[in-house]
Amino acid sequence: MHLIIPEHYDAKLTVRETQAAIRFIRETFQDEFGKEMNLSRLSAPMFVDRATGLNDNLNGVETPVSFTMADMPGKQIEIVHSLAKWKRLALHRYGFGLHEGLYTNMNAIRKDEDLDNLHSIYVDQWDWEKVIAKEERTTATLQETVKTIFKVIKHMEHEVWYKYPQAVHHLPDEIHFVTTQELEDRWPDKTPQEREDAITKELGCVFLMQIGGLLKSGKRHDGRAPDYDDWSLNGDILFWYEPLGHALELSSMGIRVDEAAMARQLKAADAEDRLQLPFHQMIMKGELPYTIGGGIGQSRLCMLLLGKAHVGEVQASIWPQEMIDQCEAAGIHIL
Description:
alpha+beta, BirA Bifunctional Protein, domain 2, three-stranded antiparallel β-sheet, 33% helix
């Protein structure tokens, strides 16, 4: 357990005021985000059949929460880690056209998460996905989409400032683009997390691109599942977060794999056995649309805009009693 206690922390809002602010942010952001990105809201599953290959494997070492059902004997059902693959299949199933997309409320349990100020075993985010043309699988498409998302986040900052001027946490006016290799070249002796902290402190907000593949050092900046993002066309939106003194990741997103990227990345990850799964077969046969998509943390956005010190101030989850006690003593009220 790694806990940061900011000096002289002031929550600014009571617990009930915070709850009202959470509702305002969530409802306002999803409406504006959906409109700006041409996304329709869809209902989504909280669990999937393991045999479909639809669950997000994250870094490949996390174990999903799973169970069996009385009416489906022999089927292993998994609570999702995210909906990264399900969304692409949904665009195909529901007949979405070029430049149309969806967003949904995604609720997940990641029981292997290391708990700290930013990480909980409960994950809530807006998962979104949009159809693009094959020729739009470019860095330019990725960066233009990131700029649109950043614009919506900045607009939400002004909305929160108008309603809760005493509590709003002000954000930088611009987002910068940098690759993981550029960070390694600049700071070869730092860890990936230290590099993220250094670049976000310097620039305020960055989109860190090309996550998942090997760098020149032979190491990865971070793990990324090989069967949804194209590792050469993905990234994370990171903000420097002064209350905690390090980077805060708000969104992970990217242009999704095509047939070639899928085959290449599964081989690199020694996971070519997944090619036999239904979802992977559909990609290799060209049956699914080319897409761009990602997730935006709901609790993370509330935390960022309200200047909160702990994600437990804006979501209800389970925390070690020691963490709860330390937070309470510092005026950090865990829900």
